[in-house]
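Re-running the complex after MR caught last week's input typo. The corrected sequence lines follow. Everything else is unchanged.
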Amino acid sequence: METVLSFLCGTLVAASIYLMLSGNLIRFIFGLVLAGNAVNLLIFVAGRLSISHPPLIPEAYGVPEMPMANALPQALILTAIVIGFALLTFVFILFYRAYQTLGTVDTESMRFAEPIERETVSDTNIMGGSNL
Amino acid sequence: MNWPLVLPIILPFAFAAVTLQFRKDFRQQQALSILGALLHCGACLYLFVKVYHNGITTTQIGNWPAPYGITIAADHLSVIMVAITGILNFSVTAYSKAEINPDLLKAGYHPLMHILIGGVCGAFLTGDLFNLYVWFEVMLMASFGLLVLDQKRHQFDGGVKYVMINLFSTLLFITGLGLLYGLTGTLNMADLHLKIQGVTDKGLLTAIAAIFMAAFGIKSGIFPLFFWLPASYHTPPVAISAIFAGLLTKVGVYAMIRMFSLVFTFDVAYTHGLLLIASILTMITGVLGAAAFNEFRRILSFHIISQVGYMVMGLALFTPLALTGSVFYILHHMIVKTNLFLISGVTRKAGGSFELAKLGGFYRSNGLPAILFFIPAFSLAGCPPLSGFWAKMILIRAGLEIQSYAVAATAAVVGLLTLYSMTKIWGEVFWKPTPKTTDPEINDQGQAANFWRLLPIIALAMLTITIGLAPEFFLKMAGQAAHELLNPDIYVKAVLGEL
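Corrected-run output:
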C-alpha cells in the first residue's frame, strides 16, 4: 500500500510541477493545490500505514493496551491543511487583484516591477523602449 | 513557563491584536505600536542578557516533556538573532511614524508588522521542526500582506512572484520534514540530532538534506534560487522593504545554519561542499547583479544576495572561526542593510526618486543623511574600522586557515566590488550636482529631515560604529554561538536534560 501511495505522490508532484511551470497564474494555483495534497499524502505515508487500533486509551488504563495507529502524522497534516487553506485563499485573492491591476495572467508578460528597458535613464530618452 | 523566553514571541502578537483595535485612530495606533516595539526590544535584550550570563535556556510548552511537546530553546545564536530583531523592529516602527501614510495604517500596517516580527522571533526560538514550519508560515503570511498593502501595480507584480516561490519553498520544507519524520520518528531538533545517528541509509538522508537545502536556499536567496528577491524587495514602501531586507532572508540563513549544524552533519564533505560552491556563486552573482543596476533599492537588493553568500560560506567551511565569522556577519549585516534601506527612503523623500540618475547633490543639500549613508555603506563594503571589515576579515582568514584559497579570494574580490557599488551610489546620489529635470515621476517630495525618520538611522549607524570600534564583545558572543553549533551536545543536553 505504501508503494502505491508513494507512486501517487510522485505523480501528483510531477503534474503539479508541470502546471506550475506553465507560466499561467490560474494553472499555478491548480498546481499549488495538487502539490499541497501530494505533500500531505507524503507525510501520511511517511508515518507508516498500518491496520491497527485507533489511538484511544480507555480511562481505566494509563498506557495503551495494544498497538495503536500513529496519530501524529494526522495532526501534522491537519495543521498543514489549515495553513494551506489560508494561504490558498490569500493566493486566490492576490492573483485576482493582480489580474485586475496588471491585466494579464501570463507570468512572462508581468514585467512591471522589473521593466525591460531603461538601462540608462536620461532625461531625453525616458520613453525609449528597446526592442528586446 | 519560562517567561523571558516566550515574551519575544507573545508580545508582538499581543500588540498586533491591540493595534488592530485602533485601526481607524492613527495617532493611538502609532503610539501603541511604538510602545509595543519598545517593550519587545526590551524583552529581546533581556533574553540576550539572560542567556549571556546563564547559557542556553529552554522551556517546554504545556509542560510536555522534551521530545514529545514543543520545545522553545534559546542558545547564543538564537538570542543574537532575537536581540537584533528587537532592535530592528523598534527602529523600523519608529521610522514608520514618518513614512507610512494613513491608507496603509488603515489597511493594517502595524498589526501585520507585529505578526511578522512574532513569526520571525518564533522561528529563531523554536526547537521543533514542525513548529519552525508553522512560524515560517506565520511570517510569510504577514510578509505577503505587507508586500501588497499599498496596492500599486509593480507591487502586485513583485508580490505574485514572491508569493509563488515562497509557497513552493514551504512545500519543499514540509516535504523534507515529512520524509525526515518517516526516517527518524521525531521532529524535535535535539532529538533528531540523536536519532539521525541510528539511520543506516545515508543516501536517503543526503537526499533529504538536499531538499532542506533547496527549501532554505529559496528563503535565504542563495544561488541559483534568488530571483524572487530582486523582483520584489524594491516594490513596497521603504519601511517594509527595510524590515524584509534585515530579517527575512536571515531567517532562511538561520534555519540553514541550525539544520546543517545540528541535524545534517553526517556527510559534511558532501552537503557542506555543495553549500560552499553555492556560496561562492551567490557572492559573485549578487555583486555583479548589483553593478548592473541604477536604482537605489535594486542595487541594495542584489547586495543582500551577495552578503548571504558570505554567511553561507561561513557555514560551509564549518570550522569554529568560520562559524564565528558567519554569526558575526549576520549580526553586522542585519543592522547595516536595514539602515541602508531606511536611508534610501530619506533620499527618496528629499529627491523624489529611487533612480540614481534623477538624484544628486545630497552632500551639499542634506549633509547629515550623506554621513549616515557613508557609515553603513562602507561598512557593507568592508572598510576598516567599521563592522563589515571584521566580519569579512574573520571569514577570509577562516578560508585561508583551511587552505580554501578560492573561496577566500572570492570573498575578498566581492568585497572590492561591493565598494564599487557603494561608491556608485555615493557618487550619483550624494556627490554629483542635482540634475535639472522636469520629470513627472518626481513627486511627493518633502522635508526629509524628520525626527522619526533620522532617529532610527542615527541609532543603527551608532551601533555599526560601536561594533566596528569595539568588536571584542560581539566576537565573543559569535564565538560562543559557533562553539555551541559545533558541539551540538550542549544544545541537546539543554533541551532533553541529562542523558
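None of the earlier attempt is carried over here. Residues 119-132 of chain A have pLDDT under 50 and may be disordered. The two ends of chain A are 53 Å apart (CA to CA).
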